[in-house]
Amino acid sequence: MTEPEVNLRIYPFTNALLTKKLLALVQQHQNPQQGISEFMKMAADLEPLEITLHLPQLCEEKNVSYMFVSSKQALGWACGVAGPVIACSVTTREGSQLQQQT
């Protein structure tokens, strides 16, 4: 599988190892319930890129971490859907069974 072409205007962009770990984290923490966003993941290989360019500013306003991964198809797989996903948010709820890792 070849790496998708990445637009150089995006930042911060994750390397392959970190992308793999973060996509696994997204897959483990799928939850349809609303909660507090812990971090946002966005695909870097979408066209036009402007579709998600408002999200980093929103994340900064809400003090939410964000990053770009190379593949919208991989992000879709991590989210448990058959098609590509251009953005997702990992959330927690108060009283959640998820434990924080340091």
UniProtKB/TrEMBL annotation:
The family database entries (InterPro entries) matched by this protein are listed as: eL8/uL1-like, Ribosomal_eL30-like_sf, Ribosomal_eL8/eL30/eS12/Gad45, Ribosomal_eL8/Nhp2
Keywords carried by this UniProt record: Ribonucleoprotein
Which Gene Ontology terms of cellular component type are present? ribonucleoprotein complex
Q: Name one GO molecular function term.
A: RNA binding
Ribosomal protein eL8/eL30/eS12/Gadd45 domain location: 41-97
Keyword field contains Secreted: no
Which Gene3D superfamilies has this protein been placed in? 3.30.1330.30
Q: Which Pfam families match?
A: Ribosomal_L7Ae (PF01248)
Protein family: Belongs to the eukaryotic ribosomal protein eL8 family.
**In its UniProt entry, what is this protein called?**
(raccoon dog) hypothetical protein
Q: What is the lineage of its organism?
A: Eukaryota, Metazoa, Chordata, Craniata, Vertebrata
